[in-house]
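Q: What structure does this chain adopt?
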Amino acid sequence: MNPLYKSAQQGNVLDVLATESVRPDLGDLDRHATDELVRTLVQGQHAAQSAVMAAVPALAAAADAIAARLMQGGRLFYVGAGTSGRLAILDASECPPTFNTPPELVVALIAGGPAAVQEAVEGAEDDDEAGAADLRARNLTPNDAVVGITASGRTPYVVGALRHAREVGSHTVAIVNNARSPLADVADAAIELLTGPEVIAGSTRLCAGTAQKIALSTLSTAVMVRLGKTYGPYMVDVRATNAKLRRRAVRMVQQITGADETASAAALEATQGRVKPAVVMLLGGCDVHEAERRLDAANGRVREALAKP
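A:
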């Protein structure tokens, strides 16, 4: 392991991080009445929204850079440990059902592997070589993008992964909750979510984790919008795999096209439940084969498919 990450050295550095600091006004937190305790915990989340708002320019730049690589056939990898890794897995796992992406397009890697989702894998996050090895096993390319997430900004597993990704030529992004971090130093771009001390000192699953969740959801959604996975506010690439989603698909087609329910349902039946070609059929006045042709020519973008018959 790199000497930089020996436990003694890391301990000294971690002690001064904002996310490890103790709020002096909460010395009697354990004696608070439950309603006051809950109010304090909820109020402690306010900094998350503010921190993400301050990072909007960095998030927007990252979304454009990642979308550009995915348009070239690249993939998006998230790398994290502990809470950050679990949040990454959550975001990645929601992309296929929401945007109909293949499971290999957005992939999350967590220190310690799948077992670490439910149980802590001791020492896994301290292994910088493991982070690089996990990405190496995915045959990383310059077209790929890698986002490392860590509250401290110095988790060795994540730093090692981003260092390897940058050597390969992939675009690298750091999402951190402390300023001027080692992870930011090895990344092409940094998204700093400066949430400060937690209500429960060091429990970054609270405010820092909330900020990371907002940032990841925002980032992946912005990327998918840039890839043409939406039309206006409608998620027109959704997989209608259950009764709720099938009803949502009918409603979307109705609202987008102005067609009645019968016509909308018929168009969806012709397209095997796919909203995009159903919309192009109805608004473009064409059959399903022509709708598919127009979408293919427009790289799956509904608006362009309608503008260029």
